Amino acid sequence: MKKVVVALLLAVFLFAGCQMKTYNPEIGDFQQSAAVTLRDNSYTCDISRVDKLVTVTATSSNAIGLTITYNGDSAMFKYFDLEYEVTSDKIDDTNLAKAIYDAFEVITTAPDKASKTADGFRYDGKTDLGNFTILQYDDFSFKSIEFRDANIKIVFD
Prior knowledge:
Layout lengths: L1 H14 L14 E9 L2 E10 L2 E6 L8 E4 L3 E6 L2 E6 L8 H14 L5 E3 L2 E8 L2 E8 L4 E6 L4 E5 L1
Antiparallel strand pairs: 1-2, 1-11, 2-3, 3-4, 4-5, 5-6, 7-8, 8-9, 9-10, 10-11
């Protein structure tokens, strides 16, 4: 009986000060170049998030110059002199601007969900597109975003 009491007291002392460490790193505006792999296709683009607007501008492939800006309600597609706005319900979840917007909405509305990595932070969440992981460096720039269920990977320069 004494051994059980001693073991119980030891467990209480060991775990009394333990609690899950949560992190709430800065998730501010950013503009970074990226390499995108979408299933079997790959291309490069510039991605920015400013005042909750996500803009993706293709810098390689046949879509060079195409800019998509998504605000949560609609997307504006611009290609040279052509402009076309599409409401959110008409945009596929795999649209890169929408996917990034939705992922950042999840991580900014659920603070303290980051975990510490060797060189920054990791966020995991789920959108209509499926599960995602965002990796962020200690300097608050972004390393990558991966939408595992949709086979989309974004690696920032």
